């Protein structure tokens, strides 16, 4: 099994734990960090809807808590007709830790997969260079 398949498999595993009483839309995310460790997260909704967190945010929080700050590869999976793409906010969160060439694989539980890079999903990302005059 390829390293990518292992990431997708882990995203699918953690997706089962998603807490989604409001959308009933479970998402799982897994990432491989600079140390080689794998971290994962699922979406966790809240009765105060904006307080809910995406699967990607959970995986990033687990990574930082685990002592890693570099993302090498990402997988996201949901039960959707087409592979689900990270929301705008999560693209920015991923870009904090992922270089432009980091691969993001988006998968469906039905077996479809699309792999794009960080730069593909967040072109022109806001970064520290924009603040270099300050
Ligand atoms: N969601 C994620 O967790 N990740 C994505 O990439 C897209 C959306 C969640 C947020 C919410 O719990 C549910 O999916 C419906 O928007």
Offer a quick outline of the entry:
This protein has 134 residues and is α+β, with helices and mostly antiparallel strands. Strands 2-1-3-4-5 form a five-stranded mixed sheet. The site of tetrahydrodeoxyuridine has 15 residues, from helix 2.
Could you name the key traits of this structure?
5 strands; alpha+beta; binds tetrahydrodeoxyuridine; 134 residues
Assembly state: single chain
**Domain module count:** 1
Distance between the termini: 48 Å
Question: Nearest-angstrom radius of gyration?
Answer: 14 Å
Which small-molecule ligands are present, each listed once? Answer: tetrahydrodeoxyuridine
Q: How much strand?
A: 25-35%
Q: Helix and strand succession?
A: HEEHEHEEH
What is the CATH C level class, in words? Alpha Beta
Give the uncertain stretches in residue-range form.
none
The geometry reads as globular
How many β-strands, per DSSP? 5
pLDDT averaged residue by residue: 97
Helix/strand structural class: alpha+beta
CATH level-two architecture: 3-Layer(aba) Sandwich
Q: Number of helix segments? A: 4
How would a crystallographer describe the biggest sheet? Answer: 5 strands, mixed
Q: In CATH, what is the homologous superfamily?
A: Cytidine Deaminase, domain 2
């Amino acid at each position: 099994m390829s390293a990518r398949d292992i990431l997708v498999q882990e995203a699918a595993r953690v997706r089962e734990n998603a807490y989604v009483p409001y959308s009933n839309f479970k998402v799982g995310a897994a990432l491989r960090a600079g140390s080689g460790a794998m971290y994962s997260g699922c979406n966790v909704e809240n009765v105060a809807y904006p307080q809910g967190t995406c699967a990607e945010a959970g995986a990033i929080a687990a990574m930082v808590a685990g002592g890693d700050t570099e993302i090498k590869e990402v997988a996201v999976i949901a039960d959707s007709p087409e592979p689900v793409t990270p929301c705008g906010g999560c693209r920015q969160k991923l870009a904090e830790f992922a270089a432009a060439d980091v691969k993001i694989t988006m998968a469906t539980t039905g077996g479809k997969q699309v792999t794009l890079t960080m730069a593909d999903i967040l072109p022109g990302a806001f970064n520290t260079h924009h603040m270099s005059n300050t």
